[in-house]
Amino acid sequence: MAELEILYLNLTGGEPLARPDFFQVYEHAKSNGFLVTLFTNGTLITEEVADQLAALPPHRIEISLHGLRENTFEAVTQGKGSFQRCMRAIQLLLDRKLPLTLKTTAMTVNKDEILAVKRYVQSLGPVGYKLGEEMRPTLDGSDAPDRWALSEAELLDINQQDPELWNETCRKQSLQTPSCVSGRRSFHIDAYGQLQLCSGNRLMSYDLRRGSFSEGFYHALPSFACPFKADAPAPLIQPSASHA
Question: Are residues 151 and 37 in the same domain?
Fold first, then answer.
């Protein structure tokens, strides 16, 4: 990937910090010139981990903050103690002035706390905020997560209550629906070295342990089908990477 001058690399999961060799992978990526973004749930960020990140800062760290109440947060994570560990991680990263973005996925279980989460994030200073409005299918393509999705009317009501969210909603509505860039500008590599269209579509793979990245990206990915989005093909252009 470095030889092809890919710039952005997103380390995600699962939880990437659960890997015993995470910092070996991370430092290797940094040494190759990638702008590394780390997606983490924050529960494994200790003082030692925060110090290691501060010593070699990433381009950005993104943590999902599902709610401001422990019961709401853990209704999503299904992990007892995850709320306190996440909040502790946020403070550790803030103390070290690391580039941080907090994000919330709008769901039935946290819809009454979304705006409060955004206000909390604004109180933290130079911290970014993202609101996700779409529920993704499971890895086998099931739409079971949709049971927690908000209706269009509920999302509209939330966005209209916040000027920034409403401006972003209006901006998106004014744009022509963009085509999916997976397999053209972005791609996914899972923990087993399988190159795929995206983390949400792992139905077809190219084994990078048996072939080159160039062959996989330029020749295999364009042939992969996507049952979730039916976009017209577009020319291949400079890719960016997401790595699990």
Answer: yes
Query: Is 0.70 surpassed by the pTM of this model?
Result: yes
Contact between 128 and 78 (Cβ < 8 Å): no
Read off the tokens for 104.
């919330």
Q: Cβ neighbours of residue 140 under 8 Å, at least 6 residues apart? A: none
Query: Cα Rg for the chain, rounded, in angstroms?
Result: 19
Considering all CA atoms of the chain, what is the largest pairwise distance in Å, rounded to the nearest integer? 52
User: Does any domain span residue 4?
Assistant: no
Assign 239 a pLDDT band (cuts: 50, 70, 90): low
206, 146: one domain: no
pLDDT tens for 122-165 read: 999 999 999 998 888 787 778 888 999 999 999 999 999 999 99
Q: Which residues, 6 or more positions from 111, have their beta carbon under 8 angstroms from its beta carbon?
A: 150, 154, 158
